[in-house]
Amino acid sequence: MGPAPAEPGGGLLRGLPMSIVYLNGKFLPADEATVPVNDRGFLFGDGIYEVTPAYGGRLFRWPQHLARMERGLAAIGIEFDAGALKDVKQELLARNGLDGAEAAYVYVQVTRGVAPRTHHFPDPPAPPTVYGFANRYLRPSMAEWARGIGAITIPDQRWARADIKAISLLANVLAAQAAVAAGAGNTIFVRDGIALEGSHNNLFAVFGGVLATAPKSNYILHGVTRDFVIELAGEMGMPVEERAIPLPELYEADEVFFTGTTTEVKPVVEVDGRPVGDGTVGPVARRLFEGFVAAVGGR
Ligand code: PDD
């Protein structure tokens, strides 16, 4: 059996039919939540988002997610107290019956608000638009997980601030769609010959027992899961090098895997049609996934 063409388990589930969402201070049914057409999120993709996993109803590494959101908001000049979103997130989990779910995630986005369309910021500033929802995450069965996925590479056409978790994700959307069109499970962005990260996850490769992943820079999102997996690897005595991975080297890796919220640790068994290692999921990804699941609970 070859690699799974798409993310096993379907990745994120479609919106729950009766889901309760959050919009600007109110919890309401998703189909009653509407945003004016002059919202700058709608017109310009002018906003920041964050996706936080929740295991057994507990937000995972919220302080780290919050810190990244605060950095993003500051970087694009939106004034908003993101700290208040913790209660919103917990409430979204509770109202959607996810407070006991094995694995769920909460999405929030903050846009620069509603104002007549001008490229520059509205003056005076508009109140930010704040939207959030929660959903279940279906972790693949161990058998599905162990099939791994195939990945293709694509030139990185994103802007040079991929470290900002901006809602404008056109290049990521096109990359993810390129994977679908190719019957692959995900796409790897390559900039100047260097393999950086996935369409919505970070990238690791293993060479002779040593892990490698792109260093934190403006060209990748500083993944919370990435940091967690580096810590796990440290606890397991696996060396990690944060360094550039040229594409020809990636093709020679013993193992390749993605990390991310809802991605967790996802092994890649094929890159651009070439088998990774012997073409099956390797021991490093397996140990890290098992360690990950043990640490977050469940299973
Ligand atoms: N994506 N790189 C990119 C480009 C991402 O979009 C993400 C997250 C990551 C992993 O970050 P973290 O481990 O903090 O989730 C890396 C989210 C889940 C999304 O867009 O849905």
Report on this structure.
- The protein contains eight helices and 16 strands.
- The chain has 299 residues and is of the alpha+beta class.
- The longest helix is centred in the N-terminal third of the chain and has 15 residues, at 62-76.
- The protein folds into two domains: 20-136, 2-Layer Sandwich (D-amino Acid Aminotransferase, Chain A, domain 1), CATH 3.30.470.10; 142-296, D-amino Acid Aminotransferase, subunit A, domain 2 (D-amino Acid Aminotransferase, Chain A, domain 2).
- The chain is globular.
- It binds N-(5'-phosphopyridoxyl)-D-alanine.
- The site of N-(5'-phosphopyridoxyl)-D-alanine (PDD) has 14 residues, from helix 6 and strand 14.
Topology:
Blueprint: E1 20-23, E2 26-29, H1 40-44, E3 47-55, E4 58-59, H2 62-76, H3 85-95, E5 104-111, E6 129-136, H4 142-145, E7 149-155, H5 170-181, E8 186-191, E9 194-198, E10 202-207, E11 210-213, H6 224-235, E12 240-242, E13 245-246, H7 247-250, E14 255-260, E15 264-271, E16 274-275, H8 283-296
Parallel strand pairs: 7-8, 7-15, 11-12
Antiparallel strand pairs: 1-2, 1-6, 3-4, 3-5, 5-6, 8-9, 9-13, 10-11, 10-14, 14-15, 15-16
Bound molecules: N-(5'-phosphopyridoxyl)-D-alanine.
